[in-house]
Amino acid sequence: MHEYIEVKFISETKGRGAFAKKNIKKGTIIDVASVILLTNEDYEKISETDLNNYCYIWEDPKLIPAFKNAITMSISQLMNHSYRPNIKYLYDYENKAIEYSAIKNIVKGDELTINYNGLVKDKSPVWFEVIE
Q1: Which of 46, 61, 88, 101 is surrounded by the fewest CB atoms within 10 Å?
Q2: Span between the terminal Cα atoms of the chain, in Å
Q3: Would you call 26 helix, strand, or coil by DSSP?
């Protein structure tokens, strides 16, 4: 059981999503997800599968270029995209983890969303139709 996050089915179009199990204050770290680093060869194998949708670009300057992608096995993987997210994520290269924190106060029951482009205010197009 996760302290802050529960997964619910939203709709056939949107699928599942992550929701706040309780009120969350701005600045609260809601999850720290360890990552599995993928070699470029491994990434190529999954790039045409649904697993590709759950990969992060991992740009750790200390790693050899063979490791450019990562995936987590965390419940946070189920956060949907929004151009008005309430959660941000930061890479922790040293600990090979991704930290998710609230960027505004969140009410119990609200959907938890991140910007898949990485930066909270990045309005670049994503690879699918955005349903807000």
Answers
A1: 61
A2: 27
A3: coil
Amino acid at 76: S
pTM (two decimals): 0.88
Listed by start position, the domains of the chain span 5-114
Dihedral sign (CA 23, 109, 9, 43):
negative
Token duo for residue 7:
């997964």
How far is Cα 96 from Cα 93, in angstroms, rounded to an integer?
5
**For 77-121, what is each residue's pLDDT tens digit?**
899 889 999 999 999 999 999 999 999 999 999 999 998 888 888
pLDDT digits (tens, 9 = 90+) for 29-47: 999 999 999 988 999 998 8
Residue 51: C-alpha distances to residues 16, 73, 130 (Å): 15, 11, 19
Alpha-carbon torsion angle 111, 36, 130, 20, nearest 10: 0
Nearest C-alpha neighbor of 37 from the set 75, 4, 64, 14: 64
Query: Topology of domain 5-114, per CATH?
Result: Beta-clip-like (2.170.270)
